[in-house]
Amino acid sequence: PRKIIIDTDPGQDDAVAILLALASPEEIEVLGITCVAGNVPLAFTSKNARIICELAGKPEVKVYAGCDRPLGRDLVTAEHVHGETGLNGPVLPDPVMPLQETHAVDYLIETLRAAAPKSVTLCPLGPLTNIATALTRAPEIAETVQEIVLMGGAYFEVGNITPTAEFNIYVDPQAADIVFKSGVPIVVMPLDVTHKALVTAPRNAAFRNLGNAVGTAVAEMTDFFERFDREKYGSDGAPLHDPCVTAYLIRPELFSGRQINVEIETQSELTMGMTVADWWGVTDRPPNALFIQDIDADGFFGLLTERLARL
Ligand code: BDR
Ligand code: CA
């Protein structure tokens, strides 16, 4: 199995991404989960990650708390989408499993320093603060990262928190800039693809009909999460952003995109956090990311439902 560290700000869709990874031990070995402030403050994200591990029946997973604010800006959160706790929807018990004492950034540095070359995949599902801080403090860890597969950014879909920026990149553009310039191979799941992964009513019903606690909780999470998109945009269901990352690790053939250059806007307040994606190759800037555009959505939901049934 591929060794991964999930860096996350749960978030209902982060929760589903984590559940999919934990349900797939043949393909994925979760070394640890590092939490960051994003959708909600760090106290909630580091608690929610443990709630999810316990829901999955995996209280042995190591969960670390990391940065509680972006590198150079005030924290922007998304309670308007995810609710007060970040995990509104299902009623789940408070976690019993401990939060690790090590800071997430120290954990990332120690783990990557001890790893073989190109042997660990990082899966950021929130703002990139923890990852950028680790890469800045210990640049040599770039050598042991196999790939960074992240959810963030947009090209044709442009923005969901400002007219031109996607939430994860907008919250910490400086951190995103560091990551995109790190030289590590990057796979990006932008809004362009996640907006094609909609939890329609039949897909939600499939989760609910699994008949296990995980299926019920995921159906309740997506019920909550989708009221925002339904009410605001009249969309067919909630986009399941973050699980695209963990699904890619299991079935990359469900996704397609282009190897392109991506740079991050960090100066202009108007377009702060924009992923300037050279989709048409109009510059000579070298490609630094596989920018995904398409998904086999039925294949994706089939995989998800089949795996959640195992928990
Ligand atoms: C991203 O922002 C968060 O609200 C979601 O969890 C996802 O990671 C989508 O823009
Ligand atoms: Ca997230």
Question: Could you describe the 3D structure shown?
Answer:
It is a single chain. The protein is of the alpha/beta class and 311 residues long. It is 37% helix and 18% strand. It contains 12 helices and 12 strands. It has helices spanning 12-22, 42-55, 79-82, 104-114, 129-137, 167-171, 173-180, 191-194, 201-208, 213-233, 243-250, 297-308, and strands spanning 2-8, 28-35, 63-65, 120-124, 145-151, 186-189, 198-199, 238-239, 255-260, 262-264, 275-277, 289-295. The strands form 3 sheets. An 8-stranded mixed sheet has the order 3-2-1-4-5-6-12-9, sandwiched between helices. Strands 7-8 form a two-stranded antiparallel sheet. A two-stranded antiparallel sheet has the order 10-11. Helix 1 (12-22) runs parallel beside helix 2, helix 5 crosses helix 7 (173-180) and helix 9 packs antiparallel against helix 10. It is globular, with a radius of gyration of 18 Å. The two termini are 18 Å apart. The protein binds beta-D-ribofuranose and calcium ion (CA). Calcium ion (CA) binds at residues 9, 11, 14, 39, 125-126, 242. Residues 11, 13-14, 39, 78, 81, 125-126, 151, 160, 166-168, 241-242 line the site of beta-D-ribofuranose. InterPro entries: I/U_nuclsd_hydro_CS, Inosine/uridine_hydrolase_dom, IUNH, Ribo_hydro-like. Residues 4-301 form the Inosine/uridine-preferring nucleoside hydrolase domain. Keywords: Glycosidase, Hydrolase.
Give the SSE layout.
Elements: E1 2-8, H1 12-22, E2 28-35, H2 42-55, E3 63-65, H3 79-82, H4 104-114, E4 120-124, H5 129-137, E5 145-151, H6 167-171, H7 173-180, E6 186-189, H8 191-194, E7 198-199, H9 201-208, H10 213-233, E8 238-239, H11 243-250, E9 255-260, E10 262-264, E11 275-277, E12 289-295, H12 297-308
Helix pairs in contact: 1-2, 1-10, 1-11, 4-5, 5-7, 9-10
The chain binds beta-D-ribofuranose and calcium ion (CA).
Beta-D-ribofuranose binds at residues 11, 13-14, 39, 78, 81, 125-126, 151, 160, 166-168, 241-242.
